[in-house]
Amino acid sequence: TQLLEQSPQFLSIQEGENLTVYCNSSSVFSSLQWYRQEPGEGPVLLVTVVTGGEVKKLKRLTFQFGDARKDSSLHITAAQPGDTGLYLCAGDSNYQLIWGAGTKLIIKP
Amino acid sequence: DTGVSQNPRHKITKRGQNVTFRCDPISEHNRLYWYRQTLGQGPEFLTYFQNEAQLEKSRLLSDRFSAERPKGSFSTLEIQRTEQGDSAMYLCASSLAYTEGTSYEQYFGPGTRLTVT
């Protein structure tokens, strides 16, 4: 059974701090996607990483795919209250996505 | 195209009643997925369609659940004889798949929140 473990499950920090969220698996994925979800809404795709070692940047967000394509990280620099939300990683496994349980992030002003 | 839409956004029903949800995917997308999500968890895969063909169903999808995509466009998810354990957010997603073996990037609708009383 393929599993994706996200850590931490919950993170509450002050505005301006940096943070990193991790997504780990023992399985290899052809690609991995990061989503952000707000309460009562569907997940919104942030980025897809495909190549081992790939790094993608989206403003203050930096996404990295592990060399072996089994893990990924999301780093946020100078977090803002608008970054608050549930961050989900999902690994591409044939016809479906394998989902992590999410990291609930709260940025306090 | 404004993205994936789902109706209704909220549904409250009494246990034992039937409910039907609708999903309209992004128009050029050939794949459509249904997920269920409970509080504090990631989405759980229920089923998916490639055009009008339903290609996979999760074990989570009991006999009370049925999904259709009759013309390869919109899809409906019906739950018969609802139970309190069916209370969850039901999410629909679509993607454009060129070949087998990948789910590609999925774009989600806002979800339908079901509450069974």
Give the helix/strand layout.
The complex is a heterodimer of chains A (109) and B (117).
Chain A: E1 5-7, E2 10-14, E3 19-24, E4 32-37, E5 44-49, E6 55-58, E7 61-65, E8 71-76, E9 85-93, E10 96-99, E11 103-108
Chain B: E1 5-7, E2 10-13, E3 19-24, E4 31-37, E5 44-50, E6 53-57, E7 65-68, E8 75-79, E9 88-95, E10 107-108, E11 112-116
Parallel strand pairs in B: 2-11
Antiparallel strand pairs in B: 1-3, 3-8, 4-5, 4-9, 5-6, 7-8, 9-10, 9-11
Greatest interface: A-B, 24 and 28 residues
CA-CA gap between termini of chain B:
36 Å
CA radius of gyration of chain A is 13 Å
What is the average per-residue confidence, as pLDDT of chain B, rounded to a whole number? 90
Shape of chain B: globular
Spans of chain A with pLDDT under 50 lasting ≥5 residues? none
Which features would summarize this protein structure in a list?
heterodimer; A: 109 residues; mainly beta; six-stranded mixed sheet; five-stranded antiparallel sheet; 0% helix; 55% strand; globular; B: 117 residues; seven-stranded mixed sheet; four-stranded antiparallel sheet; 11 strands
Characterization of the model:
The complex is a heterodimer of chains A (109) and B (117). Chain A is mainly beta and 109 residues long. Chain A has no helices and eleven strands. In chain A, strand 7 and strand 8 form a beta hairpin. In chain B, 0% of the residues lie in helices and 48% in strands. Chains A and B meet through strand 5, strand 9 and strand 10 of A and strand 5, strand 9 and strand 10 of B.
